[in-house]
Amino acid sequence: MADFYQNGIVTTMHNLTRRSHEELEQDLIKFSKTRPLGLILPSLYSELEGTALKDIVSKLKQVPYLSEIVIGLDRADLQQYKHALSFFGELPQHHRILWNDGPRLQALDAKLQALGLAPKELGKGRNVWYCMGYVLASGKTESVALHDCDIVTYEKSLLARLLYPVANPQFNYEFSKGYYARISNGQINGRVSRLLVTPLIKALKKVVGYNEYLEYMDSFRYPLAGEFSFRRDVLNDLRIPSDWGLEIGVLSEMQRNYAHNRICQVDIADNYDHKHQDLSLDNEDAGLSKMSIDITKAFFRKLATQGHTFSTESFRTLKATYYRVALDYVETYHNDALMNGLTTDIHLEEKAVEMFAQNIVTAGQRFLDNPMETPFMPTWSRVVSAMPDVLEQLKAAVEADNAEFS
Fold first, then answer.
1. Rounded mean pLDDT of 323-345?
2. Can you tell me the distance from the alpha carbon of 229 to that of 277, in angstroms, rounded to the nearest whole number?
3. How far apart are CA 269 and CA 194, in angstroms?
4. Strands (E), 107-163
């Protein structure tokens, strides 16, 4: 059972009483009458061939409070898109699939490219960005959740708890971030969050000094969780990165746009597991190695916008500070694991820390070498300003695909 401690400067919603899913669902049905609720599912076609997404869809079929489900489909040809229409066709809720590789959405993307407004990098961030645009275009929901499609421990209660803070009209939250434990096969997982992000924030606080942004980021129990929910108006002004810095970028944007009392985190699962990335010790452009570089650059970019100056020497100092803090966390998590009948591999944990430490310097050097790098996707407010009918075009393309091939 979770404790009731409120840490940091954002509200934490605990799971104190194991309130039944049925009770939560009844509340959400009531809330949805005045505040329609939706869900975004960013998916690769390959995830339709696994077991996790089949289980997720079978459980979503039983969710009565959703007005709309928006599925972003990446890396799919025509036959695969048709299969996706059938795959998701059993959902009783109103739903639409964005065939991101289809000619209609590609044509719209080309128009945005010509204006310098299209996402420049393929991946989850781009997929999520177009799905957010469709939610704005459809106008069917007021509060929207987003979660991954590879969750192998999925339960309906995860979605209910994720949506609740932004669904309840008595609350004033604009954004809710999910958190959970990461445990499988007798081990603690979540290495990038445990061994990079948390100790990196602690190290930055030592090197940079007191900083409200770092205090804010240090408030989140699982900053890299891919599960969050938001009010629809949030989508207009989110400027998020298209690389592995997506989750950190979303949190940073919420801190920039909203007061802390409009943001919360919520315990959505006793345990959570999904597919794992390789550590990629010998390849900076793959796996957790690339992820760690992208995430670290996201922190540097944010702090630079606040007037902090970085140099090669400061990155070396940060590396040394991080390394000492992270090694202490290796011991901390090992002891926590043992007390709970779990294990951690100290050797592999320390190898991950060594790689992350080196990647702090690598990320810093790339940041210095290319200070004009802008991996951010534009806000939808800006896109609409440049192309006033873009949301109508997006909705029309999705509806035309659905009408022609379903």
1. 96
2. 24
3. 18
4. 143-146
